[in-house]
Write a structure and sequence with these properties.
Adenine glycosylase active on G-A mispairs. MutY also corrects error-prone DNA synthesis past GO lesions which are due to the oxidatively damaged form of guanine: 7,8-dihydro-8-oxoguanine (8-oxo-dGTP). By secondary structure, the chain is an alpha+beta fold. It contains 15 helices and nine strands.
């Protein structure tokens, strides 16, 4: 048997039963692919089911508010995915009469859809032989063929895209693409791949050369920055707090948080008392405060680590318009804020 036959035969026996594999509807395929970017299936599956339940059609998603979409997305991270998802749903409904483009080239024009997602939708839904290249595909192909070109470079993408295009089953691109991704995810895993049971073990260059743990090659990431966040959790005498929507650019755009004071180092209690931004926020108003967590909560993002303290501030009147603390859970928030809301016992 050749490469295609071995792979698709393996897939027919070993594929996982997943809801998006029971449909060719491009809306559901698109939804699953966007959710599963940077997200494992076991984490993404409940989100997929929640989106399908709340927004069963692209028209429902387009008609939802951004806050509804972000709230449902809460906890998945990389919130630009959710914002792009919502933007594109509205574009398809308003500009394309709710009909998805049916070619790779046209799909690529949609916001939030790159090479991988366009290839997946085009092949699975419209049978176009466009090869997918994701992390699982990089890993499998780099090991099987012994390719040491770094995968996070332009040259690496071109190399693996060309190889995947050469290998794809043009008669059945949907199953081939799903098979090669599934193989990398469950058989040729990042750690402890099951080489003894692998149908490609006799032709695998990495197995032959004992380089399984060294492939794929990836250039080192840029240095992660460290930031110090201080959130001001105000509680007024009438049980209200200040909760603001983030504006401007950033991964937390349009999510809600408590007023933030960012500092160059960790604040002590004495530092907090005299910090000019804290004093400016309350503008001379009297308040009492306690530090919720003496040990900083470290929230790790891909490009920065946030060392966070929450300061609980009791005040008669809020320095700006607030909301009742009973309403806090209605707003979309970063997981850092969401975890605090779940852990902290607000007065009732």
């Amino acid at each position: 048997m050749n490469f295609k036959e071995i792979l698709t035969n393996w897939y027919s026996v070993n594929k996982r039963e997943l809801p998006w594999r029971k449909t060719k509807n491009p809306y559901y395929i698109w939804l699953s692919e966007i959710i599963l970017q940077q997200t494992q299936i076991k984490q993404g599956l409940p989100y997929y089911e929640a989106f399908v339940t709340n927004f069963p059609t692209i028209f429902d998603l387009a008609n939802a508010s951004e806050e509804e979409v972000l709230k449902l997305w809460q906890g998945l991270g990389y919130y630009s995915r959710a914002r792009n998802l919502h933007f594109t749903a509205k574009y398809i409904v308003n500009e394309l009469n709710g009909i998805f483009p049916n070619t790779y080239k046209e799909l690529l024009k949609l916001k939030g859809i790159g090479d991988y997602t366009a290839s997946a939708i085009a092949s699975i839904c419209f049978n176009e032989p466009t090869a997918v290249v994701d992390g699982n595909v990089y890993r499998f192909l780099s090991r099987h063929y012994g390719i040491e070109t770094p995968i996070n470079t332009t040259e690496g993408f071109k190399t693996f895209k060309a190889l995947a295009t050469e290998l794809i089953d043009t008669n059945n691109p949907a199953d081939f693409n799903q098979a090669i991704m599934e193989f990398g995810a469950t058989q040729c895993k990042p750690k402890n791949p099951e080489c003894t049971r692998c149908p490609f073990n006799s032709s695998c260059e990495a197995l032959k050369n004992d380089t399984i743990s060294k492939l794929p090659v990836k250039l080192k990431k840029t240095k992660v920055s460290k930031k110090h966040f201080n959130f001001l959790v105000c509680i007024s005498s009438d049980k209200k707090t200040v909760f603001n929507k983030r504006t401007g650019k950033g991964i937390w755009k349009n999510l809600y948080q408590f007023p933030l004071v960012e500092t160059k180092s960790s604040l002590s209690v004495d530092d907090f008392k005299t910090h000019p931004l804290v004093k400016d926020f309350f503008n001379g108003q009297r308040y009492d405060f306690t530090l919720y967590n003496e040990t900083e909560i470290i929230h790790k993002l891909s490009h920065q680590h946030l060392h966070t303290k929450f300061w609980i501030i009791e005040v008669n009147t809020l320095p700006e318009e607030g909301i009742y603390i009973t309403e806090l859970h209605n707003y979309p928030t970063p997981v850092l804020i969401s975890n605090f809301l779940n852990d902290f016992n607000f007065p009732v």
